[in-house]
Every structure is written in structure tokens, then in C-alpha cells.
């Protein structure tokens, strides 16, 4: 669906965005983590609200993040609403698959909408300290890629965090 949305952006409608958001931000009663963000409120005004009657799996949520990100690459108004929610979800979730896919999505959006993602880069760099090795490896790889392509600049504590991760994890940065 995400690939099709990139090829035919005029065929994407608001219901598709709402469906994916309801999958990603679904909360099941009290059993779910209350700190997870909800669907952005400006998205829920619709004559027929999208509701799901099942509990989406972690894999479905992770795949929905990628699909939603690809759809947002063609729709700036939707991206403006989704990027902050994904950033909050990145901080709130503990699932490495969801975190990795949010990192890839935010990286793609940083290339397209740098001014929207730049203020949220602190949350992305916080993933450099994630307890899951695959998450901090993905974050480091994507951040270095954005630096090499001049989508990010070394400023503030960003450079310090990268150096600290390299020293603590004893990683060799061949690309630097």
C-alpha cells in the first residue's frame, strides 16, 4: 500500500491514513502502556471514524509505520501531523521492530521534510543509548548516513552523543 501510494498519491484518501493510524496507535484497555501516544486529534474528525475490532500484532504495527511513512512522503499536511506522533511513539515504545521502523521512517522524512524532523532529532539520537543492539546500531547507521548526505549538521550535544556511543560500544566508524 505504501509503494502504491508513492506511485499514485492522488488515490490516497484520508480514510487510509486513519486506518493506519488506528493500527499504530491502538490501545487495548488498561493492558496497554498508558504512556503510548494516541492518534493525533486533528486526524480523528471524520464522518465515519475508523475503528478496529482486533488487537494488532507488533509486526503489523511495525509494518504500518513504514506504510504510513511512505504515504506521508507524498502528503505534507499529513506528515506535519504524523511526525510528532511518531517521535512520541519512538520514546514510548519498547519494541525494537517498531523503533527501527520509526527510525527509518523519520530518516526518510528528514530527507523530504528536514524542517519538520530537525526539532525531533534529540529523540532519534536518544536511540543511540537504547538497550537493544539492533536499535542503537540502526540509529547510528541512519544518523551517519544523514550526516554524510548533509541532511543533518553536527551541532549541540548531537556530536557528543555519537562519540560517546562509538567509545562505549567500541565501534569503528569507517565511513567518518
Automatic annotation (TrEMBL):
One of its GO terms (biological process) is cell division. The keyword Cell cycle applies. Pfam families: Cnd1. It is found in: Nucleus. The keyword DNA damage does not apply. GO terms for molecular function: histone binding. GO terms for cellular component: condensed chromosome, centromeric region; condensin complex; nucleus. Keywords: Cell cycle, Cell division, DNA condensation, Mitosis, Nucleus. Its main location: nucleus. Residues 98-162 form the Condensin complex subunit 1 C-terminal domain. This is Condensin complex subunit 1 C-terminal domain-containing protein.
Amino acid at each position: 500500500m505504501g509503494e502504491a501510494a508513492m506511485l499514485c498519491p492522488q488515490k490516497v484518501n484520508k480514510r487510509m491514513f486513519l486506518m493506519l493510524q488506528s493500527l499504530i496507535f491502538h490501545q487495548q484497555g488498561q493492558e496497554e502502556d498508558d504512556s503510548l501516544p494516541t492518534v493525533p486529534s486533528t486526524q480523528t474528525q471524520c464522518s465515519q471514524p475508523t475503528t478496529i475490532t482486533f488487537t494488532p500484532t507488533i509486526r503489523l504495527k511495525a509494518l504500518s509505520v513504514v506504510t504510513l511513512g511512505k504515504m506521508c512522503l507524498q502528503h505534507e499536511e499529513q506528515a506535519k501531523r504524523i511526525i510528532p506522533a511518531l517521535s512520541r511513539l519512538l520514546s514510548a515504545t519498547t519494541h525494537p521492530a517498531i523503533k527501527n521502523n520509526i527510525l527509518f521512517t523519520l530518516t526518510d522524512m528528514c530527507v523530504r521534510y528536514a524542517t519538520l524532523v530537525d526539532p525531533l532529532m534529540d529523540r532519534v539520537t536518544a536511540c543511540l543509548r537504547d538497550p537493544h543492539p539492533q536499535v542503537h546500531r540502526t540509529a547510528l547507521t541512519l544518523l551517519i548516513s544523514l550526516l554524510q548526505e548533509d541532511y543533518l549538521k553536527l551541532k549541540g550535544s548531537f556530536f557528543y552523543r555519537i562519540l560517546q556511543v562509538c567509545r562505549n560500544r567500541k565501534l569503528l566508524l569507517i565511513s567518518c
